[in-house]
Amino acid sequence: MATAVKQAQPDPGPRPLALHISAAMTTSLSSLAALPSARDGSLPWRPELAAEAAALMEELRAVEPTALTAAVAGECHRRMQTMLDGVRAYRGVQGKGEANLRLTSQDVVWRQGTTRLLDYGGDGVPALFVPSLVNRARVLDLTDDRSLLRWLRRHGVRPFLVDWDQPGPGERDFSLTEYIRDRLSGALDAATAAAGGPVFLVGYCMGGNLALALALRRQADLAGLALLATPWDFHAERAEGARLLSSLADGLEVLLRGFGELPVDILQTLFAALDPNLAQRKFRHFADLDPAGEEAAHFVALEDWVNDGVPLAAAVARECLIGWYGDNSTAQGAWLVDGQPVAPERLRLPTLLAIPDNDRIVPAASARALARAIPGAEVIVPPAGHIGMVVGSRGKSGLWRPLAEWLATAGQAGGATK
């Protein structure tokens, strides 16, 4: 029997720091290495960039090569230094911002193992929010001015929130079936009891997949379903990258057997691969912010949330990385929960899908495949990214208000308890 590996104390962040710095250094070195090819026209460009590439080549040729190399090297050094300044500034205030720990002060109406249900109160349309298993639930209640749940409470909704926490001894052997059939179903029972009738189910990202699976099992107990940036066809875009996970199955299995779970830093590495230079851009930006300003405070709260991820139970990691991404089991009709296929075409509930127009985590084509599969589904397209849709400056107009309006309309049509 494999012995679980004791995990070292994680670096405070941004996690994984070594990867972020390596990506920034690689970008700098590759920029210098590409200069001769860009200057002589041998650098390959995408066809749609041909005109811009030709203009750039002419500009580069007009500069003496040694001076050009020195200028690019200087700019690379400046960008790297600014990124490191931003990282140091963040590490100096990490955990000191308004990272919203007030989830603990909300009414806990149900608890099982590490999972609990929080009732935000109010007398509006009841809605049970289901976040992803790989990030903390507080992204839905981040700060005073960026809290989707507290805003909804003031605008006719009674939010309930599933707070998964990280897997404890009772969850380390869970598959998605246990999370959906037992934990999420139990949370729904508690929410309907507290609300006195059917509730809406609202799932965010991976939480949308869990919510969909539960909705198909419990349609009579629900007033409707809203899915926010929820993936479905994992091969609709970037298919080769998704299939690559199947070829890594043996290596993944070694990790899962050794750790007994998929560690946070492995998950963070997978997310970083979607946009390797994101950390460099955002920490260079943070370095230029007023440390006492509102934008800096929001950055710290969000970055604290990003760095406070949770590991995935081993069986869940297998289902998601190999099943969903590698084999596209969702769109292929092969994803089973408790032995039954998760078939969105069988859903007979009012359904809303929010598909942000700049989502680098869940491509729009992946989410739209789910919208097509659900009979009568409505779609809104918030002008934001995957996380910005929920906590960004345009979240209120792009998602919060349309979601509140849909819940109110669908609740009146379906007779949901208010």
Strand content: 5-15%
Give the radius of gyration: 23 Å
Please trace the helix and strand order, writing H or E for each element: HHHEEEHEHEHEHHEHHHEHEEEHEHH
Number of helices: 15
CATH superfamily of the domain at 102-238 and 311-413: Alpha/Beta hydrolase fold, catalytic domain
Based on helices, strands and strand pairing, what is the structural class?
A: alpha/beta
What are the defining features of this structure?
418 residues, 12% strand, alpha/beta, Rossmann fold, 49% helix
Topology:
Blueprint: H1 17-40, H2 50-61, H3 65-93, E1 107-112, E2 115-119, E3 125-130, H4 148-153, E4 157-163, H5 176-195, E5 199-204, H6 206-217, E6 222-228, H7 239-247, H8 249-259, E7 261-262, H9 264-272, H10 278-287, H11 294-307, E8 312-313, H12 314-326, E9 336-337, E10 340-341, E11 351-354, H13 364-373, E12 378-380, H14 388-391, H15 395-414
Parallel strand pairs: 3-4, 3-5, 5-6, 6-11, 11-12
Antiparallel strand pairs: 1-2, 2-4, 7-8, 9-10
